[in-house]
Amino acid sequence: MSLKALPTQSRALKKRRDLLDAALLEFVDKGFDATTAKSIAERAGVATGTFYQYFNNKDEMLLLVARERFAEVHANVRLPGIEQVDQRSGQLDISAFFQQVLSWIYDFHARDSRLHEVLEYRRSVDAALNEEMHKGEAILLERARFLVHAFGCANPEAVAFCLFAMAEGIVHRHVFHPQALSKAEVVETGAQMLSAYFRSLV
Predict the structure, then answer these.
(1) Cα separation of 25 and 43, whole Å?
(2) How far is Cα 202 from Cα 189, in angstroms, rounded to an integer?
(3) CA 16 to CA 51: how far, in whole Å?
(4) Closest by alpha carbon to 175, among 118, 108, 130?
(5) Which parts of the chain fold into alpha helices (H)?
(6) Residue 85: helix, strand or coil by DSSP?
(7) How far apart are CA 77 and CA 105, in angstroms?
């Protein structure tokens, strides 16, 4: 997909930002199919013609929304740092690390659960969006691989894949299919299970 170039003037950049923010809200409120260039422009308080100055279509906008979402995830889901080190033993507290990651990912998905559903629905029919999402997921999987390699786990590819899939499954299952369990119970128990699985392979 060929995206329109970013404008250079601050006023134009603000209009473009307003349109992107409006598109996100439209996708969440109405779903992808019912959202139109006109409805996005109206929510942003501009003419429909202004929409086409900055974007080709709503598919392009959804791709950019996905790109921004993954950028936020990548900025917040990082490899364990000094804050996860147990000061008493000097060892990495892997359970605390997994709990921190699961909690952040949970809140991220809960904040825009409807948007996540739209993205998953559209990626099956939009090749460009699917590729963008694969790229974003690949970066997270690579970080899981790095963690696994750093601890010398056997069969690191399989372990990294399973850690990634388990964390994703724990969050998705509870956010998109609410249960009687609280978020705190799910995150704490999920972190304990992930860390136990991880330690068993180190």
Answers:
(1) 9
(2) 20
(3) 8
(4) 108
(5) 10-30, 37-44, 48-54, 58-76, 94-111, 113-123, 127-150, 156-176, 183-201
(6) strand
(7) 8
**Predicted confidence (pLDDT) per residue in 147-194, tens digit:** 888 888 888 899 999 999 999 999 999 999 888 999 999 999 999 999
pLDDT, averaged across the chain? 90
d(CA 29, CA 92) in angstroms, rounded, equals 42
Give CA–CA dist 18/99, Å, rounded: 35
For 78-96, the pLDDT digits (tens) are 877 655 555 455 467 888 8
Asked whether residue 130 carries a pLDDT value surpassing 80, the answer given is yes
Asked if residues 187 and 193 have their Cβ atoms less than 8 Å apart, the reply is no
Sign of the torsion angle spanned by Cα atoms 190, 196, 197, 199: positive
Residue 33 in 3-state DSSP?
coil
Which two tokens mark 3? 């995206």
Q: What is the pLDDT of residue 165?
A: 94
As a whole number of angstroms, the distance between CA 127 and CA 135 comes to: 12
Burial of residue 101, with CB atoms counted within 10 A of its CB: 0-12 exposed, 13-18 middle, 19 or more buried:
buried
pTM of the model: 0.87
